[in-house]
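Allow me, if you will, to draw on your knowledge of protein folds for a short while. I have a record of one protein: its chain in single-letter code and its fold written as discrete structure tokens. Could you please explain, in whatever detail you think fit, how the structure tokens follow from the sequence? The record follows directly beneath this note:
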Amino acid sequence: MSHWLVSNVPSGLLLLGLIVVIAGGAVLIQAVLRHQFPRLRGDAHNDVTKFAFGVVAFVYAFFIGFVVSAMWGQINSADGKVRAEGSAAVQMAKSLTVFDAPDRDRLRNSLLEYEHAALTEWPLAAKGHSYPEADSALDRLFTAYTQVKPSSDVQKTVLANSLSDFNTMSRARTERVLQASTDVGPPWSLWAVILLTGALVLGCAIIYGVEAPVMHYSMVATVAALVAANLFLVLLLAHPFIGDIGTSPEPLRQVVRVLEGNPA
């Protein structure tokens, strides 16, 4: 469900929808409770509510901070893998000029074929699916490099460096695909804790005794908007390879631009 929301709903609309649903629902519940239980408007129970709200708010803030920090680490890790993959491929592309024309053309075509396959694979891998053509293209690229017969010391050195870059690129791509298949969002147990702590924070705000309705509704709406914003942030961070915050395949596109003679 979270993957579908992040993939198909624009971020701004998703945030607005969460605020409307959560804040609107909280205010509606508050209105019903204020009508059904008039004593909640007083402050007789506020001492207990203050203590409960302080404890719950602290736990909620600490827990959300921990979750966001961990998920942001996943984003950084994914970004590092993609940058390593892209930078190694760019270096391979720039080194092609030292080879003889037949080898240079064959290597350029093989590398370009792989990069297009990797870009096609990107959204599939983000959904946990495989794309065998990317593996086949990578194998063909390696074969193309092993078929090169260097005719000078410079070509031998560049070939060795290119094979090293190929290993770096291949390893980064493998790690990226594995991460995409495993980092698919928090498990249901973590979602349950996130939703439960958010509900407790809202519950304490709703039952807090405030005589003036405008003040009380404003307080509940503010807390609800904060909970909605935190939930929105967790949703975006839960999927490292999709959404506005997720890692971009731009390094792979840069390789294609270099190979096609348009690095800008």
